[in-house]
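pasting for the record
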Amino acid sequence: MAEIGGGGCCPPMDLMRSEPMQLVQVIVPMESAHLTVSYLGDLGLVQFKDLNSEKSPFQRTYAAQIKRCGEMARKLRFFKDQMSKAGVSPKEFLGKDVDIDLDDVEVKLGELEAELSEINANNDKLQRSYNELMEYKLVLEKAGEFFASAHRSATAQQSETESQQVVGEDALEAPLLQEEKSVDPTKQVKLGFLTGLVPREKSMVFERILFRATRGNIFIRQSVIEESVVDPNSGEKAEKNVFVVFYSGERAKSKILKICEAFGANRYPFSEELSKQAQMMTEVTGRLAELKTTISAGLDHRKILLETIGDKFEQWNLKVRKEKAIYHTLNMLSLDVTKKCLVGEGWSPVFAATEIQKALQRAAVDSNSQVGSIFQVLRTKEMPPTFFRTNKFTTAFQEIVDAYGVAKYQEANPTVFTIVTFPFLFAVMFGDWGHGICLLLATMYLVLNERKLSNQKLGDIMEMAFGGRYVILMMSLFSIYTGLIYNEFFSVPFPLFAPSAYECRDASCSEATTIGLIKTRDTYPFGVDPVWHGTRSELPFLNSLKMKMSILLGVAQMNLGIIMSFCNAKFFKSAVNIWFQFVPQMIFLNCLFGYLSALIIIKWCTGSQADLYHVMIYMFLSPMEDLGENQLFPHQKTVQLTFLFLALISVPWMLLPKPFILKKQHEARHQGQSYAQLEETDESLQVETNGGAHGHEEFEFSEIFVHQLIHTIEFVLGAVSNTASYLRLWALSLAHSELSSVFYEKVLLMALSFNNILILIVGLLVFIFATVGVLLVMETLSAFLHALRLHWVEYQNKFYEGDGYKFDPFTFTLLGNEDE
């Protein structure tokens, strides 16, 4: 539940029953409504009901104000995104809420958004121009190299041709008449060309399409650019090639232009003349230097503006969130017919009535209202919300219970006993004081640094572990305790409390069961005697011990669950549930499995060799048969017959009387009382659990009878299956012990036996990783989930309905941590 400090107005914490709640009505004048809701949000002890549920969000009184706050929240999200991209962190707002006007905030946010948008637009334009000039510079460099190379080649070829002609004229073999070659100037074809950049991955396709579209009447040259360039259109880096396409005719040119546009090729003008090329290169280089200086100055100005926004961001953000929450709450209040006041209803704890009235009076005074607010308590049969005041220690345990279902109003809270039983049952399965110490050290880091870690963003798994740090702390402490009982430290026994009570008579005693062991001292004072570890009888002995212990713990916890159902019935004054649910359930469970638990204890105390399986099986199959050597105490047969008879009687006792009694109560309650005045007592809020919740509805006897039949069958079968389910304590404890023993013997001891430092280091690392990964992570999670199941199914289903709903008050406490 919500965590509210225990100081000030709050009485001492009581987890057994949820806080007494009351339905209150508040009538607030319009001029003080905003301030009243604000003060109630600071108090955080009122859960408002929506009195306008039939209206759409746009039909409500304060829809325009919420839209206005939403627009401001959008601007703040825009600022946050811009600050994140620029690497500017908003300053933490540690002070109290400064009284700033929302209108001023709205105007300021509008001005800042306009200025920042203008700076961004100008910067984008400048950056685009800069990127275009960078591409243009590359085109000038690469295409210039191509034209210069072609010019040198043409000059060399022309000089070679002229020299050949001179030699030919002087030769004796030259013909007398030589035809002069002449070209008609009117038939000369002038070639045009286009230059630009095309993405490298499209360059081959680009060249092929150009060739096909012009039927080969082009000449194309491409040059690879080694470094990536920023594309002016997308703003992303890309690998590109510079191309030069020579063509003939306007028709070919139009085709080439369309293909360039389709392939996203950026075209740039280029001149054949070397002087113009040099001039263009000089101009481009100069403009690039100017743009770089301008962009740098713009970015500096933008960063200064974002830092200015960051100084006030958290304050503005909190203000807008609070205003939006206030108007959302005001929309849940109904407008009076006079349209001069708002009427609100909501749930609040009884102890908070004085604080709420003080807040209402303070709001009326501070808003200079001529009329004060009216506060009154309403009487209702509606089920109130459930509210437990928890602290940082009990919150995690309460959340474990709430994950199954929220307690009904003032129903007995399982958390009271779960704080102890949950870590204890976990430790029964995880018992090893070495592993417990490792868990304790890890948890102590979280506990000691909780103030620092609570303000940091942790990962999902780390966040979960930090939230349940006190649960893990209790689990580790109980694991150390049960580990000392099992006498296991990473599966190794230690005679901590005294020497072993037994000694070996000869060298072969470790291979025997009990032969060869002589008791020379007093019994080992605490836990399992270390001499059992390593013997052939270790597994049978520990199996028997842990299996019987699991049954004892299971029957004890199930009895606790049934006793809790008695507490509920007594609290809600339901005699029917006491006599026809609690009593027969206690008789049935204890006549069978309570009796089995008693036999286990008697067998431990007397050292009898009786077979308890035989006793329990033939108690049902042959109740009249003599027990013989399986008899543990005098008159055992008579006791068994009595218990069996009581167990059989308790089944119809649970099934039949309750539906008929409920029917009779319903008839007596509604006979001649169609309209009855509500009682003016504190019990008027209590929800009846014995059928009275149907109110004036028709009593469905068949439905009640079928429900009782299902409940009876579930309990009878569950008594057997739930007891068997507790054997998981034995199974997981044995698995944990054996895994730990395997890692110790087959990894660490084997590495030590090689007398090689390298093998020892490797073996030690494998042992550490196996212990942490398997035993401290996977086994911890496994034992946690099994302990969770035992509490949710075997324990809580005996008494816990869990069909309530949480008290969710209107509060500003968590506004700063919420994401929009």
